[in-house]
Amino acid sequence: MHLKLSHVRLLVADYATAFAFYSGTLGLPARFSDVAGGYGEFDTGTVSLALFDRRKMALALGSADEIVTGSPLGRPVLTFFVADVDALWRDLQAKGVVFLTPPTNRPEWTVRTAHFQDPDGNLIEINGDLRRGG
Fold this sequence. Notes:
Layout: E1 7-12, H1 15-25, E2 30-34, E3 39-42, E4 48-53, H2 54-60, E5 77-81, H3 85-94, E6 99-106, E7 111-117, E8 123-129
Parallel strand pairs: 1-4, 5-8
Antiparallel strand pairs: 2-3, 3-4, 6-7, 7-8
């Protein structure tokens, strides 16, 4: 059997706020959004980014308990490759995004990075290839 990753799904506490962040602040093109159902998807290339209301996922698993939110280090990291880390960093700061780290060269990773969190505490990295001036 061959597994092909199709989606990264983030479970969020406030679907409307999370959707507004990814669509408005980050400018990702939405494939669709169902506010009542608490589910939406964004076109990010080969793999889709999906948001799903955490309470509805708990119900789908037959549990009334929600996953407790905590440190971003205990969660997946969304990593987006960009042509110019510094330009996007400035643009996102102007939109009110608070960064955990400024643009930083990471030669051991061969990328320049900056990190921030979405409204639900998920860690996001933007990076560009240092070998190409990213």
